[in-house]
Hints:
CATH superfamily: Winged helix-like DNA-binding domain superfamily/Winged helix DNA-binding domain
Low-confidence stretches: none
Number of strands: 2
CATH class: Mainly Alpha
Mean pLDDT: 89
CATH architecture: Orthogonal Bundle
Strand order of the largest sheet: 1-2
Oligomer: single chain
Helix content: 40-55%
Number of helices: 4
Order of helices and strands: HHHEEH
CATH topology: Arc Repressor Mutant, subunit A
Amino acid sequence: xxxxxxxxxxxxxxxxxxxxxxxxxxxxxxxxxxxxxxxxxxxxxxxxxxxxxxxxxxxxxxxxxxxxxxxxxxxxxxxxxxxxxxxxxxxxxxxxxxxxxxxxxxxxxxxxx
Length: 113
């Protein structure tokens, strides 16, 4: 595996999956809300945008600016889309985990002595 083909981290996977679920409505606040509603994960918008910027630099997502709105003080929303490279990386991560989970029986909790 080449250095540029490292496996995705857990938060990167969750973020990519959230973007895919949201489709055309994937922007910072909607991604954050989905992560909170679906898996109970509270993340700051700063951490989320830092992750998405890093993934955009890696070519895993692309972003476009929407229309400016008065509700946002004239600022546009930045919408995200998962690229083909991002989908491939997500599938690789899923396949790796599925492979590792094969033939694994979860252990009973260890009792203290």
